[in-house]
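Protocol check, entry for the methods section draft. Step 1: assemble the input record (protein sequence plus ligand SMILES). Step 2: submit for complex structure prediction. Step 3: store the structure tokens unaltered in the notebook. Ligand used here: pyridoxal-5'-phosphate. Step 1 record:
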Amino acid sequence: MTERIFNFSAGPAMLPVPVLEQAQREMLSLPGVGMSVMEISHRSKEFDDIINSAEQSLRELMGIPENYRVLFLQGGASLQFSMIPINLLPGGGSADYIVTGSWGKKAVKEAKRVGGVNVAASTQDGGFKNIPPQDQLKLDPHAAYVHITTNETIEGVEWHAEPEVGEVPLVADASSDILSHPIPLEKYALIYAGAQKNMGPSGVTLVIIRDDLLARIPDGLHTMLDYRTHVENKSLYNTPNTWGIYILNLVCQWLKEKGGLDGMHRENEAKAKMIYDAIDATDFYRGHADPEARSLMNVTFRLPSEDLEKQFAKEATAAGLDGLKGHRSVGGIRASIYNAFPREGAEALVAFMKEFEKKNG
Ligand SMILES: *Cc1c(COP(=O)(O)O)cnc(C)c1O
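Step 3, stored output:
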């Protein structure tokens, strides 16, 4: 048995240890099946039970109403950057995008290939440090939808309340904060997320879509790119990522044992507070995001110099705290502390930060 370290990776990220252990026990034979979940048909009764359980558990955990469909797709959140406008941005129409970081910019890039894009607000000039206030949103009441990124994984900036968008459907990339806290689901028309930050392994993309949006989809789309294909076939039009859906289902069971999303939210707040408090306690560390917009999932901060940041990440790795180097596009340090990340890891980071400052401050 090799020791597990504290893994601060932004994604793929830590999975709950009990989930990994159960998967290990069931690797060679699912109980009563005699085969690995990777070896059974996606059309078997056994897999049907798994995918249904995953959907039901998500419905329960997130409070997903009956008039929403739950889809398990592939292609990552990145394919959704294209699928959303292809399905929902009719010729001649325009969609509003509120850009609060690098992922939102990528979503805009793909939407522009399909139709009109109105950037209703962008915080890029300020270095993606905050969430634009409601009165600065230049929303178009006739927009096909409004797109936001609920948590910008790279910059560490998170929406803590939904923007008011009136009757226009709100579409959200929730890849890095899905299942981390309860949300008022009925405020959203479509939510999507790659699984590999907070739900499971890479290769599964969750899409939650309100029924009425399906009626807007133009005919003649490529079959695999049309949401209706996946709704009508219950995510089994082609072979889905069976292993990924199996793990996602186990993660949902673990979440229920942990007190659901309320329980997770409290735990996530406690972990993040420890690290932000350590940042705020000194001038040696500087948080990237404005305090009101700070992410509970990705804590981003700077040190007095890039050399010190390099040294910090290197020495942290040697001390068993891995994955702290910030994204190559912004530099600095990023501690990703998703649901499965343990409180002891946040404590260990805070202790390391104090020690590092003492030696180098
Ligand atoms: C990681 C991430 C993506 C990209 O996800 P893929 O599944 O790799 O396509 C998109 N948006 C956000 C907010 C992310 O964190």
